[in-house]
Amino acid sequence: MNDRLQAIRNKMAGLNLQGMIIAKPENIRYLTNIEAEGILLITRKENVFITDGRYMEYVSSIITPFDEIVVDDQKNISKDEYENFFLFCENVGFEEGYLTYKNYKEYIRKFKINNFVEAEEILTLLRMIKDDKEIADIKRACEITDNCFNMLKKYIKPGLTEKQIARKIHDYYIENSEGEAFETIVASGENSSKPHAVPTDRIIKENDIITIDMGCKINGYCSDMTRTVFVGNPQDRQIAVYNLVLENQKKVLNEIRDGANIKTITKSVETDFNINGHSLIHALGHGVGLEIHEDPIINLKNDVPLKENMVITNEPGIYIAGDFGVRIEDTVLVTKKGAIALTESEKECIII
Amino acid sequence: MNDRLQAIRNKMAGLNLQGMIIAKPENIRYLTNIEAEGILLITRKENVFITDGRYMEYVSSIITPFDEIVVDDQKNISKDEYENFFLFCENVGFEEGYLTYKNYKEYIRKFKINNFVEAEEILTLLRMIKDDKEIADIKRACEITDNCFNMLKKYIKPGLTEKQIARKIHDYYIENSEGEAFETIVASGENSSKPHAVPTDRIIKENDIITIDMGCKINGYCSDMTRTVFVGNPQDRQIAVYNLVLENQKKVLNEIRDGANIKTITKSVETDFNINGHSLIHALGHGVGLEIHEDPIINLKNDVPLKENMVITNEPGIYIAGDFGVRIEDTVLVTKKGAIALTESEKECIII
């Protein structure tokens, strides 16, 4: 059986779970490499992937005997067989943050489950700590993002629209990776004051400020980077905000290491923003992996230490409604000795 | 208050619901035009959209006084205020097919809900029947898809890869619409035997069969069309399967009308496939709207009549593992008199 399936079985034993239903696509991919609709059952005896006719051929071509995964077409599974998967299981785990209430009720009935237990944490804890292969994939996605940004510094000029710049990024990622990890943000002028702006037909002007939030995927693993750049001359109040964000971003990079407390790190940024008359209106960061946003969330509510081989973003931002915004973000690897920024594009005030 | 919010309030009254929490983005967009993270509360007194700092500026710019929607930043809502939204409400509805089990439990606690009642059907029933504006948007998305297919007939030739063709479709949609409604499928040769194939680097050869499943979005509304084409000479066994699929697709188009039973229509295709030694391995179709797959599902389990102004797909397909597959799909409007195919590309055996 592969290491990850073995690891989840060990964790399940520790929590007195005799079975588990895994439905979240990223968790299924993490454990089995399968990218298809279906659910993975961890039963006492077997690992079973239940899918349908559309995917039988593909799934059978992906798994190896070593995986020890049985593939079933749902249309061939009888009522009795469903009820037998978890026979004599006292507790069966499920992903409470993924399963809908409807599926929750359906699975209890269909599989005749005694105690259906919230157990998603088993997978989030496993996935939070990246292995060498995962780190290598994220690193590669970050390198491609740096390269894309280098290209952009030469490409961006007054007259282009936000959509044209976003399109250029999209095309670069299609050529060089598995494509965008999320919808690219290109927010210029007053649009930059919206942290989640969607690219518009607004035309870049001389002396505009532009926030670009971008990332791609390699083997399913994401990168995430934001830079705020100036086309021509920044205004003094923009420079003041830029420097405040940048100082905090660098400070956080210095503080990140195995054992550093997430709440403390976030609090320090919030305090400094407040002292300077601004607010921290979104999380300071988030885990990155098979999902662009995954655990751990980096905010005030998460009073836990960072751990070695987590990959997280460090992305303080300040937004002045109707005026402009600044966000600077890197994808960062947590090590025992400190943080390693995996996105390495320049971040001192960038004028293009 | 806008008509849709009024309609949902009327339906709620009929089900003895005094409040409702709407969390599914497409439902929020349908009712309010808002495209932002957050939840919509329908309370006795008000409609409240709870969001966060990232979206306050955007949401306030979208809604009009006529909508009668109050916008709240979650960080300004106290524990007491949360508990007061549904005060004196006996039953509060929620979307059981969208809300995760975790959110289900969280909302009961946070809003101090007495009876949290499965009520998603209110919205799926409303959304299944399209109004003139929605039909116009879908029609436009279908027209663009037809135009894209016309372009493809001239573009496709031996030597191109599946990915290059998919890219061409992507680019066409970016130029002419809000982009792809789903990940385009371009499956050639033996890849066409997988109904959900992902475009690969496989190079198109002389005499290849190619299945192309494509759609775009206009004002959020989707189109969905599949054509299976031949590059050069089809083989006799391919023509036999093609004609069987095409006959059934046309037969279904003739049967679709207000009042026609979904199960009966599907059964007739399954029977004809079986008589000819094949199987119907996926649904015959699905509703199309703000989501590419929405209600009603067109399969054997759905023993209900079609209704006027539903928009559904008609997409029979036959897949011969490891060999080839054929699927022919149109987006179709249900009327009192019959079906109107909104995608109109030719579907007699297409040789390019």
Task: Provide an overview of this structure.
Two copies of one chain form a homodimer. The first copy, chain A, has ten helices and 19 strands. The first copy, chain A, has 352 residues and is α+β, with helices and mostly antiparallel strands. The first copy, chain A, has two domains: 125 residues, Creatine Amidinohydrolase, Chain A, domain 1 (3-Layer(aba) Sandwich); 220 residues, Creatine Amidinohydrolase (Alpha-Beta Complex), CATH 3.90.230.10. In chain A, strands 4-3-2-1-5-6 form a six-stranded mixed beta sheet. Chain A has a four-stranded mixed beta sheet with strand order 7-8-11-19, covered by helices on one side. The longest helix of chain A has 24 residues. The termini of chain A are far apart. The model of chain A has no long low-confidence stretch (mean pLDDT 96). The interface between A and B is medium-sized, with 35 and 35 residues.
Distance between the termini of chain A: 53 Å
Strand line-up of the largest beta sheet of chain A: 4-3-2-1-5-6
| Sequence stretches where pLDDT stays below 50 over 5 or more residues of chain A | none
| Share in helix of chain A | 25-40%
CATH class value of the largest domain in chain A: Alpha Beta
Output mean pLDDT of chain A: 96
* SSE run of chain A: HEHEEHEHEHEHHHEEEEEHHEEEEEEEE
Summing up helix and strand content along with how strands pair, one would put the structural category of chain A as alpha+beta
Largest interface: chains, residues each:
A-B, 35 and 35 residues
Q: What is the number of helices of chain A? A: 10
The CATH superfamily of the largest domain in chain A is identified as Creatinase/methionine aminopeptidase superfamily
Largest sheet data of chain A = 6 strands, mixed
- Fill in the CATH topology of the largest domain in chain A: Creatine Amidinohydrolase
CATH architecture of the largest domain in chain A: Alpha-Beta Complex
Rg over CA atoms of chain A: 23 Å
Total beta strand runs of chain A: 19
